[in-house]
Hints:
Layout: H1 2-6, H2 29-40, H3 43-47, H4 49-55, H5 62-87, H6 102-132, H7 164-173, H8 187-197, H9 211-227, H10 232-242, H11 245-258, H12 263-271, H13 281-294, H14 301-306, H15 315-348, H16 360-371, H17 377-411, H18 414-418, H19 420-435, H20 443-453, H21 457-473, H22 476-487, H23 493-516, E1 522-523, E2 526-527, H24 530-544, H25 546-557, H26 563-571, H27 595-603
Helix pairs in contact: 2-10, 2-15, 2-17, 4-15, 5-13, 5-15, 5-23, 6-9, 6-17, 6-19, 6-21, 6-24, 6-25, 8-16, 9-17, 9-19, 10-17, 11-15, 11-17, 12-15, 13-23, 15-16, 17-19, 20-24, 21-23, 21-24, 25-26
Amino acid sequence: MESNVKNGAVPGEPAKKDENSRRGNWGNQIEFVLTSVGYAVGLGNVWRFPYLCYRNGGGAFMLPYFIMLVFCGIPLFFLELSFGQFASQGCLGVWKISPMFKGVGYGMMVVSTYIGIYYNVVICIAFYYFFMSMTKLLPWTYCNNPWNTPDCSGVVSSPLNATLANATTSLVAGVTEVVNRTKRTSPSEEYWKHYVLNISDDIGNFGEVRMPILGCLAISWFVVFLCLIRGVKSSGKVVYFTATFPYVVLTILFIRGITLDGAINGIKYYLTPQWQKVLDAKVWGDAASQIFYSLGCAWGGLITMASYNKFHNNCFRDSIIISITNCATSVYAGFVIFSILGFMAHNLNVPVSEVADHGPGLAFVAYPEALTLLPISPLWSLLFFFMLILLGLGTQFCLLETLVTAIVDEIGTDWIIRNKTVVTLSVAIVGFLLGVPLTTQAGIYWLLLMDNYAASFSLVIISCIMCICVMYVYGHRNYFKDVEMMLGFPPPLFFKVCWRFISPVIISFILIFTVIQYKPITYNDYVYPGWSLAIGFCMAMSSVICIPIYALYKISRSPGATFRERLKHACRAHPKWGPALQEHRTGRYAPMASEDTVESSVGEIPFAGDLYIL
C-alpha cells in the first residue's frame, strides 16, 4: 500500500501498475505515439495541404515546408511534449513553472473548446455522407432529384430508366458531354447546398435545425465519449484502429487512383516544381502556417497527451517520429487527392485547376463528384468518408481529453479523479449543445467563421508567449537541466538554439504574415457582414485576453510592497513545480531541500535586461 501512496494513488482504490497511480499512464508507448499521430494527422492533412502545395509551386513548396518542419515544427513539438511529461500535468497544471502565465493554459482551453465544437460538426457531416453512401447509387450522381435546379449539369449521363448495370456501364464509359464549369453547378454541389445543408441566404438567418445532421452530431459525440469513457486507458486501445486504418484506406484509394486515366496529369499538377515561387514570401508563410497548425501546437493537446507518459520516456524520439509521420501523411494524401481529381479533369476535358478545391469544398463536393465516375462508386465513397471520420475522431479524442484533464487536474480532489467519467460526459453534453447552432441552415457560415477566427493568430500568440516564458522567464538553463534530468541527456544543441531564437522568430513571422495576408472571410459568393466578423475577432481575442487578465490577477494577489516585488513573486516557479512523483524529485527538487531553496533554484528570474540571453 505504501508504494501506491508514493505513486499518488487515490485512497480506497485498488493497487494499479501505473507509474503514476493517481492520474494513470498510457498502457505502453505505442498507445501514446498512435494517439499523438491521430491528433496531429487530421482533416487538414487531406483537404488543405495538397491544395496549398499545388497553389504554391508544387514540388517547390516541399522545400520551405520541410525547412519549417525542421526549424519550427519539430522543436515546438518537442518543447510541448517535454513540458507536459516533466510535470505530468495538463495545460493548466504545467504553469506552476511560472504562475503568472497560467492564462496561457486557459487560452489553450478556450482554443480547444472552439475547435472541439466545430470539428465534431465536420465529423458528423462525414458520418452523414457515410450513411448516405450505403446505397446502390450515390444520391449526388444525377440531376434528376427534387433538390436539383435547372443549372445542374452532371458529369455522367442520366438515362431515365437505367438499371444499375446500365448506370455502371455509363460510369465506366465516362462523360457523354463536356460542360462549361463556369456556368454549371454539379449534382454534388447542389446535394451539398440544397439537400444536406439546405443553406440559408445569410449567417443571421438560422432557419431550422437540420435533423439528420443533428442526429449524426449526437452519434459523433456519443462515439467520442465511449472512446474516452476511461480516459487514456480506453482511448489508448481505440487508437490502434483509428490511427492506423486511415493509412489502409489511403493506400487503397491511392492504388485505385493511379490506375485511372488522367491520374498522372493530376499528380504532375500537384508535384511539378515552380522554383520561382520559392522567392515569394507568401509561399514561406503558407509553409510555416501549415506546419504550425497541422502539428497541433498551442492547442494544449500535446501537453496533455505527454502528461500521461512515464517520467523517463524518450519524448525526444517520439517528437521526431510523430512530426515526420504527420508531414509524410500530408504528402501521401496529396497523391490520393490529385490522382482522382486528375481523372475527373480528364473526363471533363478541363484543366486540373478547375476541379481542385480545398476544405469542405474538396471533402463534400469535388471529391464525392469524382467518385461518381468510378465503377462501384458507393464502395469508394464509403471508404473515403470512413477515412475522414477516423481522421477527425483522432483529433477530437485529444481535444476532449485536453479539456477534461485540465478540469480534473485543476480541481484535483480524490472524488473528481475517481469520477472522471462524469466530467467527460458533462463536457461531451455541453459540446453537443454548443454545436446545435452549427446544424441549422446557417450552420456552415458559423462553422467557417469559427475555423477562420477561433484558432488563427491566437494560437501563434499563445505559442510565442509559451516559448518566452519557458526560455526567458523560467530560464533556458533551468529547463535544459530539467530535460536532462528527465531523459538522461540534455537537449541537442540544435534544439537549444531553435527554442531560444529560431522558433520564436519563425512564430513571429507567422503572426506578421497572418496579419498582412488577412482578408475578410467569404463563402463562395457570400460576403460576411461586419457584425459577424466582429464576433469572429471576439472569438479570436477571447483566448488571448486570458493571458493579460490572469497575469494582472496573479500580480495583484501576490505578496510584496512594490509592483516589482509582486511581479517577481508572480513569475517565480511554484514550490510544487517539478516532477509529480516523489521518487523523481531529485537534485534541486529533492524533498529535503527547504521550500525557499527550491523556489530560488527553480524560479529566480532576473529583471531589467538581465534575461537569460547568454
